[in-house]
Amino acid sequence: MEPTAAAPVVQTTVSDHIALVKISNPPVNALSTAVRQGLQQAFTELNQNADVHAIVVTGSGANFIAGADIREFGLPPQAPALPDVCNQIEASDKLVIAAIHGAALGGGLEIALSAHYRVAVETAKIGLPEVNLGLLPGAGGTQRAPRLAGAAAALDLMLSGRHAGAKEALRLGLIDHIATSDDIAAEGIAYARSLLADGAPIRRTGEQTAALDDRAAQQAAIDAARADVAKKKGLFSPAKIVDCVQAALDQPFAEGLATERELFTQCLNSPQRAGLVHVFFAEREVTKSPETQSAKPRPFQKVGVIGGGTMGAGIAVSLLDAGLSVTMIERDDAALALGQSRVAKVYDGAIAKGRLSEEGKAAILARFHGSTSYDALADADIVIEAVFEDMGVKKAVFAELDRVCKPGAVLATNTSYLDINEVANSVSRPQDVVGLHFFSPANIMKLLEIVVPAKVSADVVATGFALAKKLKKVPVRAGVCDGFIGNRILAVYRQAADYMMEDGASPFEIDAMVRAFGYPMGPYEMSDLAGGDIGWATRKRRAATRDPKARYVHIADKLCERGWFGQKTGQGWYVYEAGTRGGKPNPAVDPIIAEERAKAGVTPRTFTREELERRYVAAMVNEGAKVVAEGIALRPLDVDVTLVYGYGFPRYKGGPMKYADLVGLPQILADIEAFAKEDPLFWQPAPLLVKLVQEGKNFDSLNKA
Ligand code: 3H9
To answer: What is the domain-level CATH number for residue 357?
Structure first.
């Protein structure tokens, strides 16, 4: 068969003096090199074509243009650069109209802002989300958006990265007209004709000044944004966005573009860009597992939740919010009433904040049922068990589910560490049993570990992924082991923290280091929030199987023995005074630490913040490598997404495995080998890490395999 020539990514047709320039670069018409070249060529030709009076730019498929091609960042730049294409479009001496449907984001909106007029369908998504990738709009967006919408609106869009609808964009001055039909090409052409008929002038955005005329108001908006950005430490690009808007106010257009270019390049070269772009692709990759490729999910509408505790109630809210119908099972009327009230309380909170009406709450709760009998689950498509973490209790629940559930119902456990193979093998239908590990609060936290036991059928796993999508959660496939991906790694870096504490660092120093690294809170603050008793229970459970030669730090147990479980008991590592937010370091912790150090024969030493950080991160990365090598996580990127979405690892550092790549694996390994001189049992280098270093490869090489 003859090979067919690929269709050009930019197609031009001219009809009755109107040129239609259509971008066809699936899936989202990203501005790849070929598209930029195509646009450049199209505009060069059309500008020379005397027959053409107006040019309409539009996208084929579901979107106008989703932005620059993110896959090209970090590669050697190819001409033409996007800012040059935008400038060429703006300079056109034919009337240029952008006709927008779907996404006009980032570079896509920058193309549209370079046109002389813009029309969009009502459902269009208009925005400058570069900040989410560690960037700023680098093709004139920081200069053109304020010229159309003023500094405040432009800053809001660029700093939040949010999408505006067409109505809002019209109000802000970013578009000129809302299309009445969804045939965007026809709408663009009709709009072009009406502009020509009205004798509308060529209106170059770079020459507009009206939105910036009130300089005092613009300056006030910039100052307010700068103050706001200063409060949110960590990210690099937001302050640069504010600098660009200041340039839009102070500098002539061409100079402003040059400033933007310089600051964009700084962002492009920052490790934050590499980390954030990694997470952008990783959070899409995790949705693809062998099972989602090979099997279709089972249909689901009715979901059962066993248990009305914090977790069960949070899961129920998450399901209800997604429009599903939910039946909660509890052991008696009182427990059921409590579970139901936990659910109702979430919606009362939403009403108090003005996010929901009483009628809205009633409509949601009409889909929410409760029962003390498992028989109420006879027609459930999925059942999620969220009862006490005890194998005997779980097996008893699953025996009931095995008895009442219809054939083909998915039977899920929300256990955070128990052996799901054992649960599955206790019923007559192990192929239907899967782990769905939600994170607390389950209606808020985005991560869902989908834990895959040995006998589960592929369509059940695929159903887990489909459920995650329905719940707008980020699914990560995990294998069965104690703690799966996230809690297993957490246990190890928390242990590293405890060792540093016993060796001389204070828990408050460690928390401060972890916050400075970019986490919202440190491990001891986290333990106080979650309840110290939870970790204590885990440690007690593991005591029987712990290597007797392994070092064990008793300090946390000593706090728990005193009943100091953190926030819920008024004190833990920190003291919590009623009526105040957050806690203060608990002075009573210091003598406990001192006593334990003495018992362990440790002479305390000091650690620099960098030393603390290197140990904490090395422990995380080393265990992450073991989790990947054992197949518990499919790829390093699955570890990254788990730690970013479930444990607060700073997104802009890309997750621990990406961060290790950026630091350099040889350095991480050298650190581990140095620490191993003190404690060779704990600091055993992961064989995968050693292998990658020997081969001169990084973790990312495994993501692409
Ligand atoms: C920028 O523009 C910089 C400029 O200012 C300056 C330059 C000088 N590039 O999300 P989905 C892929 S920065 C390459 O699942 P949806 C995505 O990976 C950019 N690929 O679909 C996925 O691939 P796969 C600013 C991209 O319908 C597929 O498309 N723009 C890009 O749920 C489908 O994506 C943004 O940040 C891209 N730009 O959502 C917008 N975008 O199928 C980023 C997507 O292989 N994109 N892909 O997994 C989005 O927000 C969403 O993708 C969008 C569609 C809302 C468009």
So the answer is: 3.40.50.720
> Distance (Å, rounded) from C-alpha 130 to C-alpha 138?
9
* Dihedral sign from CA coordinates of 457, 460, 466, 468: negative
130 labelled catalytic:
yes
DSSP, collapsed to helix, strand or coil, labels residue 445 as: coil
**Which protein residues touch ligand 1 with a CB less than 6 Å away?**
27-28, 30, 63, 66-71, 82, 103, 105-107, 110, 129-130, 133, 135, 137-139, 141, 281, 284
Cα 340 to its chain centre, rounded Å, is: 30
DSSP, collapsed to helix, strand or coil, labels residue 597 as helix
CA–centroid distance, 106 to ligand 1, in Å, is 10
> What confidence tens digit (pLDDT) does each residue in 655-675 have?
999 999 999 999 999 999 999
Beta bridge partners of 57: 21, 98
Of 470, 518, 474, 476, the closest CA to residue 616 belongs to: 518
**Residue tagged active-site, from 130, 330, 400, 596:** 130
- The verdict on residue 295 lying in a domain is no
Residues 404 and 503 grouped into a single domain: no
Instruction: State pTM to two decimals.
Output: 0.95
- Structural domain ending residue among the three candidates 269, 286, 320: 269
601-628 residue pLDDT tens: 999 999 999 999 999 999 999 999 999 9
List b or e across 588-603, with b for residues whose CB sees 16 or more CB atoms inside 10 angstroms: ebeebbeebbeeeeee
In degrees rounded to 5, what are phi and psi of residue 98? -95, 130
